[in-house]
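Researcher: We're teaching a course module on how sequence relates to structure. For the next exercise, students receive a sequence and then see the predicted structure as tokens, so they can try to spot secondary structure elements on their own. Here is the exercise chain.
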Amino acid sequence: MLKDITLGQYFPGDTVIHRLDPRTKIVMVGVFLVALFSSGGLIPMLIPALFLAMVIALSKVRVRLLIRNLKPLIIILSFTGFINLFMTPGEPLVSVWIFTVTLEGIERAVVLVTRIVMMIMGTFILTYTTTPMTLTDGIESLMSPLKWLRVPVHELTIIMSMALRFIPALIEETDKIMSAQKARGADFETGNLLKRAKALIPLLIPLFISAIRRAEELAIAMESRCYHGGEGRTRMRQLQFAARDFLTGLVGVLLLVAVFGIRGLLQ
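Model: And here is the predicted structure for the students to work with:
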């Protein structure tokens, strides 16, 4: 299951989505999340769903890959759907013991689970189509006004970039440790949920040691290259908006107008 997690990985490509400015993609993710959480029901949610489907098609990211990344979240999605299915008051349809399924509960469960799935997919599209370095430059550029408030923008973005890039490495390290312990007779796949959680405890110490060792090696590498923060640093590639970025911004505005317009008509 760990191999299914691909957060932080970049998949090279030459699509329209890959060529967009990273600042445009970051802002569009925010616009998409606003439209997604502002849609009150299933019908208004069709607009963000169509937008997400269009982005996935343009980016040429495999849908199977996005669905595979949802496997680690099955428990959370199931729990969210279960709570809203049985705990939402409304017109009762089926009653079993203390649990009552209502029409409103079904709609609310479907809306919330679909919203979480779409939110995760939209976020993954950003990391799949943007290199970590370019993503860091985009975040730093968007946060640059905070420098007037003496916020260490460059240092914060570097930390975020390192954390994002270390996720695949730590997942790979965890998989190696699990394989090594399985070869020694450790069992991670049988028993109830509590037993499986306890079986993962021996993984923590070697994983922490590996993470600390990687951080120390990275710090030494940065010091040996005379890294001293963002002051006076230049970039090999300067970020520039193109016509496609402005067109994408217009699509974002139309997305919000469509969602709020349909929601207003249905109220």
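Model: If you want an answer key for the exercise: Residues 134 and 237 are 9 Å apart (CA to CA). The chain has two domains: 8-130+238-267, 153-233.
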